[in-house]
Amino acid sequence: MTIRIGLLGYGTVGKGVIEIIHSHQERIQALLGEPVEVTGVLVQHLKKKREIPSSILVTSDFDRLLLQDIDIVLEAIVGEEPSFTYCKKAIEQGKHVVTANKEMYAIHGKELKELASKHSVSVGYESTTVAGTPVIRTLQQLLQVNQVEKVEGILNGTSNFILTKMRQDGTSFEQSLKEAQQKGYAEADPTNDIKGYDAFYKLMNISELLYGKQPNWDDVYVEGIDRVDPTQILEASFMDKKIKHVATIEWKDGDVRASIQPISLTEHHPLYSIDGVQNGVVIHTDLAGPLTLSGPGAGASSTASGMIEDFITIFQQSYNNVHQFQ
Amino acid sequence: MTIRIGLLGYGTVGKGVIEIIHSHQERIQALLGEPVEVTGVLVQHLKKKREIPSSILVTSDFDRLLLQDIDIVLEAIVGEEPSFTYCKKAIEQGKHVVTANKEMYAIHGKELKELASKHSVSVGYESTTVAGTPVIRTLQQLLQVNQVEKVEGILNGTSNFILTKMRQDGTSFEQSLKEAQQKGYAEADPTNDIKGYDAFYKLMNISELLYGKQPNWDDVYVEGIDRVDPTQILEASFMDKKIKHVATIEWKDGDVRASIQPISLTEHHPLYSIDGVQNGVVIHTDLAGPLTLSGPGAGASSTASGMIEDFITIFQQSYNNVHQFQ
What we know:
The structure is a homodimer of 326-residue chains. The first copy, chain A, has two domains: 3-131 and 301-322, NAD(P)-binding Rossmann-like Domain (Rossmann fold, 3-Layer(aba) Sandwich), CATH 3.40.50; 136-297, 2-Layer Sandwich (Dihydrodipicolinate Reductase, domain 2), CATH 3.30.360.10. Helices cover 41% and strands 22% of the residues of chain A. The first copy, chain A, has helices at 12-23, 25-32, 62-66, 83-92, 102-118, 135-142, 157-169, 173-182, 191-194, 197-211, 230-238, 300-322, and strands at residues 3-8, 36-42, 57-59, 72-75, 96-99, 123-124, 148-154, 221-222, 242-252, 255-265, 278-285, 290-296. In chain A, helix 4 links the parallel strand 4 and strand 5. At the A-B interface, helix 2, helix 6, strand 12 and helix 12 of A face helix 2, helix 6, strand 12 and helix 12 of B. Strand 12 (290-296) of chain A pairs antiparallel with strand 12 (290-296) of chain B, so a sheet runs across the interface. Chains A, B: Belongs to the homoserine dehydrogenase family.
């Protein structure tokens, strides 16, 4: 039987999802034992011209998409709503959900997880945090006995690009931001990136996963990179240091502590060498030691990749439960 | 019902395994739904004084260990034999196996995997490669749709320590090796490390996993670090480069190509910043981009940690197959 996907959003990530499912069809089928198809795509404006095969339903009506007998929803839209309403409805109707929406998931992740458990479906959210670089699934699947004592991360590519640029070329914050926008890394409104909110949402998703809870949002110190000036960067350079925008989460004195701020790192810090749009995390574990994982933290292909890997994991579980020990 | 472990070897890693099972008993039980105990330990010399609880059988007779009704064998001895014979026998009697033995697994891994499949048991081998840093399980579980085009790795901590020392302190190869031995990183006979054989075995295990085959061993160019002299390192430093011992494996022209040799890297290479006894790999994927994973590549706690995480994964599969969707 074909596995049927309903895709929410047809921006760069949504397009990436369809491309991968097309280009990797054979591999996916080998992994799951069944063919996979995108049955319908939810878009905001129906009239916009798009190159979508005519076999795929294109609709702006979520309920119509759900009627297509889909097995799973891949959600690639931004912002809290209507994303949350859609995901909730999908789960209530017994569909699995994979989301790349960091803001929505930071706010409603716990609720969605609980709902999914009630309806015997799964929620994948790898791409909410560091795109397709498998930070979430490393914490979730690969470190189970290990206690994670602390996670430090460079979680926003735009901020890291700007800080790298300022250091390497001596340009101002404004000039560097402009270049980030020209290269398509930063949005027209870059507030979420440069004020640290984007990194904040990602950190909250890590917190939920690690500790089953988030700190009180008001108690988290969040400082963006918009007040970092070239002099500070130069001073750090003189001491062989780099200023990096670091998000930290740890369990301390019986509670979760989190902060996000520019700090200067020596070359011995594992995040020191993560430059440009790259993202990375250091996972401090009690047994395996500190593990560093880095890779692209954004981009259509990487984000879509994380969503497809989530999708595979979800269906492989069901598949393996039938074809045990093969 | 209690899950019963037979442990092979009581060196630093074997001790580490017992320690973790003791210290993390509650967590392990929460993960698997059952208590876990080390039922017996196989040692080479029975007369040696050891602090092992009297409830655990200590024997030098493998068959006697197998008679203890164990569910899984954790193998922490070195060298091809008798490790292979033990693992084979265990699998044939329906026991799962987790091994940390890179040499044995590079030679017999494929055979053991096939045998395990026939007997409906699993083989875990995370700790054969970069100890508890989850390189194997990242490739195995987290990158399924992604095609891995190439893996580059610093796979031997002793070599990396020596090269780092030579660059930082300007010491000779011999002096640096001596220091590695004093610190307990290098064996009394350091041949396997400095000639590249240790990295070679690890690379072969990665090859088997990625491509289901290994290159012809004679076709792999293997050069150790024993001919690197301080002048080369100094010259590299002048050009802001570092000489690193890099193992590379890729699929090219219809076959697997592998090499292991000292090469000089610029600061833009993700392995450039991996210094000292740290190990790391760059996984070049077609969708998620290049991912870098680094951490301790040796050490009792890290190696034992990788074995226990393997152990958890194996039993969790069975557990989840019973308690689906919880």
